[in-house]
Specification:
- With about 600 residues, this protein is of the alpha/beta class.
- Helices cover about 45% and strands about 15% of the residues.
- The chain has a 9-stranded mixed beta sheet.
- The chain starts with a strand and ends in a 5-residue tail after the last helix.
- Bound molecules: phosphoenolpyruvate and magnesium ion.
- The site of magnesium ion (MG) has 5 residues, from helix 17.
Length: about 600
């Protein structure tokens, strides 16, 4: 960070998605506060304060609901209904009244005690549907408390001005601010790494974003002018005239280059020397499907199904899930390949009450298939919903995340059989000719690949997790982001061995982690023998162009040249000149020309 007498300030962060964007700061930060506690001699006054704060909270939720009604799904709206029911609950009100009248507590203190009591009661309920309400109760309690102590809660989402660049300390991948993606011009956060799920969401929703920008929230003020350059990972706060002029010029240049990639939107992909390559799309939300349909992608290589659950903050019943998956098949068609990944919850994808945020090492803990197999009835509902929705699909693939052993594969296959049997019994049409595969994310699976190959139809390499486990480097932590390097020789050697092994076992192998769309990595991956790349749809044209400009011979020679080098920078210094020769526009767009 450079500070120039309170004028323009430059920050460095991790560029995630989009081109240069100029806008105005919209702070999305919770102010710190303390809860006043005292004994009152005027309980009526305290009761009135509480009732006013409660009424205000009801109005606020209702206006947010009204505002979002046309933008969000019925499931998401249900959340507001449950908030409303709670706020109007007589028992809740009488508990607070009791604390005020009998305990002589002031309104804030009384509210605090009651919310704590309810949260702990709900947390201890064994029915997980009810247990997960404890987080909702905390959130509602906080909202009333903000009204009581007249503090600013997180800013109202319907007040987002035009051209707003959201500046936050952190946001979760399902933060309501992301529902407003059409209204926000950009996003800057202090926390978060390149492969975090927040990053994946912003890429999917095409929000220009720079994450991991230290100190930005303490320096930025609402309405400050701000420039973000995601391709360089740069942020300029309160830019001067020259910086604005330079940014505008650069923006025109970036957009021109981006437009020039459009000619690659509709052609099938092959290398310059004629090797056919499959590009598929990574999808988190159904909203992203039209952008994939605008390309000639082979299919969906990764549908992150957990986002349905995360958005509704609870597990929708089988029927709701079925309708959701049906929407994918009807929008994207039954002929093309559609890979649905089963729920990958845990890690940074938390559902209060179901998957907790309190694990010491959430990325090493109760995640993905581990969670699903310990909740077989929930898992079965998802499998049935997928199979039903895909009853006419010709190319359905079911993919399981975080597989670490043989038994998890056998257990999942058993549940799939069970799902088929129960649909058959119920006389419901379903898909029985699907392919079954796993995400390759845990390094040790390399050593059992021969054993499991006969039980699966494909693997898809999830480099976001694989690299975090291989290098012991948290994918979402900006402090160690400098270690999360695709050009790290261990990463390249591991992948080269894995892809060769899968190819020699005749096991279909693709890559759906973010590395599959990394410009420097692509020639090396092609050289390793990778033929299937699943990437964010927004990058399709550029990646298609890049692959078309490369020859397989070049890529194989490049790999041979770099695979024994010991430093990432040496490798990069050899890859960049080749790309500069073969695909200068792509390299220029990515600002990689040195
Ligand atoms: C991965 O780990 O690379 C992956 C594609 O899965 P996710 O990013 O959703 O964990
Ligand atoms: Mg993963």
């Amino acid at each position: 960070m450079e500070k120039e007498k309170n004028k323009s300030m430059k920050f460095k962060g991790i560029g995630i998605s989009g081109t240069i964007t100029i806008g105005k700061v919209f702070l999305y930060i919770q102010e710190p506060y303390t809860i006043p506690r005292y004994l009152t001699s005027d309980p009526e006054k305290e009761l009135e304060k509480f009732n006013n704060a409660l009424r205000k909270a009801i109005q606020e939720y209702s206006s947010v609901k009204k505002h979002l009604e046309s933008d969000i799904s019925e499931d998401e709206l249900l959340l507001f209904t449950s908030f409303d029911l709670f706020l109007k609950d007589e028992q809740f009100k009488s508990m607070v009244e009791n604390e005020i009248r009998k305990g002589n507590k002031n309104a804030e203190w009384a509210l605090y005690v009651v919310i704590e009591e309810l949260v702990s009661r709900f947390k201890n309920i064994s029915n997980i549907n009810l247990a997960q309400r404890s987080e909702d109760i905390s959130a509602i309690g906080e909202k009333i408390m903000m009204n009581l102590i007249s503090k600013t809660y997180l800013p109202e989402l319907n007040n987002i001005p035009e051209n707003a660049i959201i500046v936050a300390r952190t946001i979760s991948p399902t933060d309501p601010i992301l529902i407003q993606h059409k209204k926000i011009a950009g996003l800057v956060t202090e926390l978060g790494g390149f492969a975090s799920h927040t990053a994946i969401m912003t890429r999917g929703l095409s929000i220009p974003a720079v994450l991991g920008v230290e100190f930005i929230t303490s320096e930025a003020q609402n309405d400050d002018m701000i420039i973000i350059n995601p391709l360089k990972g740069e942020v300029i706060l309160r830019p001067d005239e020259k910086e604005i002029k330079d940014a505008m010029e650069l923006k025109v240049k970036q957009e021109k280059l981006l437009l020039s990639f459009n000619e690659f939107s509709k052609n099938e992909t092959s290398t310059k020397d004629g090797f056919s390559i499959d590009i598929l799309g990574n999808i988190e939300l159904v909203d992203e499907l039209p952008s994939l349909l605008n390309t000639s992608a082979k299919g969906i290589g990764l549908y992150r199904s957990e986002f349905l659950v995360l958005q509704s903050n609870s597990f929708p019943p089988e029927d709701v899930q079925y309708k959701h998956y049906l929407k994918i098949f009807s929008t994207y068609g039954n002929d093309r390949e559609i890979t649905i990944r089963t729920l990958d919850l845990g890690g940074d994808k938390i559902i209060p009450g179901y998957v907790s945020a309190n694990e010491k090492n959430p990325f090493l803990g109760w995640r993905a298939i581990r969670f699903c197999l310990s909740r077989p009835s929930l898992f079965l509902e998802q499998l049935k919903a997928i199979l039903r929705a895909g009853s006419n699909a010709k190319n359905l693939k079911i993919m399981v995340p975080m597989i670490s052993n043989f038994e998890e594969i056998i257990e999942t296959r058993k549940l799939l059989k069970l799902a088929e049997e129960s649909l058959k019994e119920a006389n419901l049409p379903y898909c029985s000719n699907y392919k079954f595969g796993i995400m390759f994310e845990i390094p040790s699976v390399m050593y059992i690949l021969d054993d499991i190959a006969s039980k699966i139809d494909f693997i898809s390499i999830g480099t976001n997790d694989l690299i975090q486990y291989l290098l012991a480097c948290d994918r979402g932590n900006e402090k160690v982001a400098y270690l999360f390097k695709y050009m790290n020789p261990s990463v390249l050697r591991f992948l080269s061995e894995l892809i060769s092994k899968a190819n020699s076992l005749k096991l279909e192998v693709s890559m759906c982690g973010e590395m599959a769309s990394d410009v420097l990595s692509i020639p090396l991956l092609l050289g390793m023998g990778l033929k299937r790349f699943s990437i964010p749809p927004s990058l399709y044209n550029m990646i298609n162009k890049l692959i078309s400009m490369l020859s397989m011979t070049d890529c194989q020679n490049l790999l041979k040249e770099v695979i024994s080098l010991s430093e990432a920078s040496e490798i990069e210094n050899i890859v960049v000149p080749l790309l500069k020769k073969r695909a200068p526009e792509v390299l220029e767009y990515c600002h990689l020309i040195k």
